[in-house]
């Protein structure tokens, strides 16, 4: 593998780490007891995740495509704008970056885990969970959310943005999805974003954490992948 590909793979690792550090970080601030941001609500979380994506794309974007999401990587490969040979290395880098980002959130909020007894709030800091557990409905929500994400990203490629503006536009897309479609499932729209932090939740020594809810974990993996494939197909039909 040449140096250019290694740099791109590293950029996915680093960018996804920043994404989860800032994204799960805002969840920690809102969810954990005695945090100065405790209880500040969904609007803060939606804006926090939008800015997390924006900053992560700025960090990774000068070294690689800044997918930061296995569903996006698969969609870009399907659309012919990314090499299939790099799909698996990118996904591995994204998952590992997500795990490290979640570990850094744990460290950043270290005193707060012991005073937080709500197991749902702790798990919700790391991974997504549905407001109403209905697997078919939850799956549909993740498919729709990721469809909008990927179709938006692919459509952006048809526009000429001022240098440096693209990450802000992507952040606006994430904010819109979070505010409009995030309520039912917490809008994972990214398999690495959910699986990596859920794995960190499983292994980190948090005495009050409870279970990692692996029964639900397939939804934020499969749903985004299906949504990405459908969006890629629709985009190719249009373009």
Q: How many domains make up the coordinates?
A: 1
Order of helices and strands: HHHHHHHHHH
Gross geometry: globular
Rounded to an integer, what's the Rg over CA atoms? 17 Å
Q: Per CATH, which architecture?
A: Up-down Bundle
CATH superfamily placement: Glycerol uptake facilitator protein
Q: Give the termini distance in whole angstroms.
A: 32 Å
Mean pLDDT: 96
User: Which stretches are low in confidence, meaning pLDDT under 50 for 5 or more residues running?
Assistant: none
Summarize the structure.
It is found in: Membrane. The chain is mainly alpha-helical.
Record keyword descriptors for this entry.
membrane, glycerol channel activity, 239 residues, Glycerol uptake facilitator protein, mainly alpha, globular, transmembrane
Explain what the structure shows.
With 239 residues, the protein is mainly alpha-helical. It has one domain: Glycerol uptake facilitator protein, CATH 1.20.1080.10. The chain is 68% helix and 0% strand. The longest helix has 29 residues, at 3-31. The radius of gyration is 17 Å and the shape is globular. The model has no long low-confidence stretch (mean pLDDT 96). This is Aquaporin family protein. The chain crosses the membrane at residues 6-30, 42-64, 84-109, 139-156, 168-189, 216-238. It is a multi-pass membrane protein.
Secondary-structure blueprint:
Blueprint: H1 3-31, H2 42-61, H3 70-78, H4 87-108, H5 112-115, H6 119-126, H7 135-156, H8 166-181, H9 191-203, H10 219-238
Helix pairs in contact: 1-2, 1-4, 1-6, 2-8, 3-4, 3-10, 4-9, 7-8, 7-10, 9-10
Subcellular location: Membrane
Family: Belongs to the MIP/aquaporin (TC 1.A.8) family.
Transmembrane segments: 6-30, 42-64, 84-109, 139-156, 168-189, 216-238
């Amino acid at each position: 593998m040449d140096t250019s590909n290694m740099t791109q793979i590293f950029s996915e690792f680093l960018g996804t780490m920043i994404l989860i550090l800032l994204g799960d970080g805002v969840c920690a601030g809102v969810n954990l007891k005695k945090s100065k941001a405790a209880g500040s609500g969904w609007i803060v979380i939606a804006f926090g995740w939008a800015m997390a994506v924006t900053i992560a794309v700025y960090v990774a974007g000068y070294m690689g495509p800044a997918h930061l999401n296995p569903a996006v990587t698969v969609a870009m490969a399907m659309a012919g704008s990314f090499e299939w040979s790099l799909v698996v290395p990118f996904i591995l880098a994204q998952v590992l970056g997500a795990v490290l980002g979640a570990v850094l959130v744990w460290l950043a909020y270290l005193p707060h885990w012991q005073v937080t007894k709500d197991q749902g709030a702790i798990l919700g800091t790391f991974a997504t969970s549905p407001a109403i557990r209905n697997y078919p409905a939850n799956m549909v929500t993740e498919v729709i959310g990721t469809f909008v994400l990927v179709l938006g990203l692919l459509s952006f490629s048809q526009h000429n943005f001022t240098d440096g503006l693209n990450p802000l536009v992507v952040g606006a897309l994430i904010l819109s999805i979070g505010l409009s479609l995030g309520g039912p499932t917490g809008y994972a729209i990214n398999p690495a974003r959910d699986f990596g932090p859920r794995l960190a939740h499983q292994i980190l020594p948090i005495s009050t954490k409870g279970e990692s809810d692996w029964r639900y974990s397939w939804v934020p993996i499969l749903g985004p992948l299906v949504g990405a494939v459908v969006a890629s197909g629709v985009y190719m039909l249009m373009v």
